[in-house]
Every structure is written in C-alpha cells, then in structure tokens.
Amino acid sequence: MIIMDTNVLVAALRSRTGWSRKMLSQVLRSELLAGVSVPLFIEYEAALQRAEQRTAFGLNADEVDEFLAGLASVLQPIDISFLWRPQLKDPADEMVLEAAVNGQCTYLVTRNLRDFAQAAPRFNLQLTTPSAFYSTQAPSSSHKPQQD
Fold it and tell me: What is the pTM of this model?
C-alpha cells in the first residue's frame, strides 16, 4: 500500500500527463492500493479547494468535491493509533508520515523527498517520487508519461 503526499495529488490534477497522473489514475481504478487517514484527507480537501488550485485544475468547487468523493471511495482508511511526532522539520508533513506508519505502508510517495528523507528509514518506508516508483515497478502498460 502507498501513501500519497498532497503534492502528488496536486501535480496529478494540474497535468493530464505525467507519473503523478498515472498514479492517481491507477488508484482511482483500484489498480494501486493507497491509504489515507482522516487528517490527511482533510489536508487533501483544503489544498485542492484553494481557488488558485481549482483554477489551475479547470474545476469548480462542486467538481472538486465530486472528485474527492470518488477518491475517498477507493482509498483504504487508516486509523491513527500512534502519534510519532515530532519526526520532521515541517509539522504539516507529520500527518503524511503518521498515515504511512500507522497504515503499515510500503511506499510514501512525494515530490519532496528532502522533507521525509531522515524519518522514512526509521519506519522502514520506501520514500519515492511518482517517477521513481514506476521505474522500480514492473511495467503495467506501454504508456510512459513524458513528465512527472
């Protein structure tokens, strides 16, 4: 199971191509198992509903809500049993790490490796970007996005 940092969702919605979009598409089709905690999902919602993001996505608030409802229907819920704070320099990233650890995820997927680099190995998490995730996986299709 993977945990997607919010920046992966933002990148996926901003571009119709790229590894982030491929990952999101596979999650939505239930081809890739992803988890989320309540705090992390609330962060997804807050980030995706920002006016500047909606403009970049070409979506209105209702369409973002519809997308989030669909996303929630395929994500595996993760209960936060243990808080591991503080582990990271940026307190906003703690909920991503806690979801990954409590969900016993294999991968924490982010476009900002630096923020998680020291903590991920402590919890046996494979820290990766969307493009690196696909370069280490068996190819599932011949479609290769041109950007991340």
Answer: 0.87
